[in-house]
Amino acid sequence: MKATQYISTRGGVAPLSFRQAVMMGLADDGGLLLPAEIPQVGDRLDAWRRLDYRGLASALMHLFVGDDIPATEFAALVNRSYERFSRAEVAPVVAVGDLYVLELFHGPTLAFKDVALQFLGNVFEHVLTASGERLNIVGATSGDTGSAAICGVRGRRNIEIFIMHPHGKVSPIQERQMTTVLDPNVHNIAVQGTFDDGQRVLKEIFNDLPFKRRYGLGAVNSVNWARVLAQVVYYFHAAFRVQDRTGCRRVQFSVPTGNFGDIFAGYVALRMGAPISRLILATNENDILARFFTSGVYATGEVVPTLSPSMDIQVASNFERYLFYRCGGDGGKVRALMAQFAGSGRLELSGEDPAFVAGRGTTDDALAVISRCHREHGYLLDPHSAVGVAVGERFRRPDEPTVCLATAHPAKFPEAIRRATGQDLARHPAIEGILSLPTRCAVLPPTRQAVQEFIVSTLGTRC
Ligand SMILES: *Cc1c(COP(=O)(O)O)cnc(C)c1O
């Protein structure tokens, strides 16, 4: 077994290549795809330390891609993926007080999801160009994922993208970040209902297998392996930069968490041999993951809306990947645990994992951190990143730097910034003026039939 072969967490899929794993998304046995082996890179760290972000991304990710994309072609693909970032170093690390902040929001939609979705768009295009096929992406969003996914595939010849958002229920900025993209392959749908209605319609469309096959539907949600892979890179890159500055042996990362995608990438980096001591998992009031890492019990609760909406999640879609390692790679055991969870909304594991500590940062904690960081350091955090800082501060160590992941630019959340600081400070040129640009969006009832009819008629006009 090799790092370039992919298996399912539930053990029911014959080994796949990288390309097959990316196109499959969710594994056919209902599990998630993982590399059969995690490469150990201890002897490469000194060479990797000298690379810039793009060079490191090419070298690291190619270990998981293998023969599917030749190395020089892959390096060009990676370079294209980070072309639209406004900082040459892609993901800079800045000192804020006695913490370090890893800024992941310099991509085109100002959220860390660009790091992975710009790359995924290029991987899709590469695979489709080679095979001559077309892909019709269908997704549902409550905010950040939709705009980053649209931005990752806008203008590409062999891809159409349909993104549903709840009509009138996403923030005006998030809505405009999607609906002002006028490329002919981008199709926004405002569903007259809630985010859950959109999710339900999406599931119903994907469960209509004849429709799914006939129209070549694909997904871009966070279970796609290519998204996790692209995020592994910045853990190495940031750890190297902090080591350069402090000479420390290892660093710890604090990660604001929703679907367990971002922090799982940190776990992969740790297992590969990155100089990481442990991961600090930070949730908001929707704390299923924080409760799991402190009690061993993984049990769903009600979703409560918070200031950090991209973390308002009670069932973390990437958690199953971690479960696979906790079950010693036993797919049968994972399958049994997930069946138990599907039936009762609860599962329990014994033992602890020294790689993780966890805590919860409430809305009040986040507001206090935003206000204090601004007052004391002149640094503005968005409400998601503030949850990570609030929890990260509790686990500070005297002898080891803490790096907090900043997952969105504060300008995406001006209300929260106003509440925390009493001032209108959240600005970014990519957002200025967006509210007055022309938009295109179809408003549809929240039914499978209405959305399918829209997809079919739209594709009819595009081919
Ligand atoms: C998606 C998102 C998160 C959560 O990331 P996961 O990979 O789901 O844990 C945190 N912050 C922001 C701004 C996001 O968009």
Structural class: alpha/beta
Chain-averaged pLDDT: 94
Number of helices: 18
The stretches of 5 or more residues where confidence is low (pLDDT under 50) are none
User: Largest sheet, if any?
Assistant: 6 strands, mixed
Please bin the fraction of helical residues: 40-55%
Query: Any idea of the CATH class of one domain?
Result: Alpha Beta
Cα shape: globular
Strand content: 15-25%
The quaternary structure here is single chain
The radius of gyration is 21 Å
Task: Walk me through the structure.
- By secondary structure, the chain is an alpha/beta fold.
- The chain has a domain at 93-110 and 228-427: Rossmann fold, CATH 3.40.50.
- It has 18 helices and 15 strands.
- The strands form 4 sheets. A 6-stranded mixed beta sheet has the order 3-4-14-9-10-13. Strands 8-5-6-7-15 form a 5-stranded parallel beta sheet, with helices on both faces. A two-stranded antiparallel sheet has the order 1-2.
- The protein is globular, with a radius of gyration of 21 Å.
- It starts with 5 loop residues before the first strand and ends with a helix.
- The model has no long low-confidence stretch (mean pLDDT 94).
- Pyridoxal-5'-phosphate (PLP) binds at residues 111, 113, 144, 222, 256-262, 310-311, 384, 407-408.
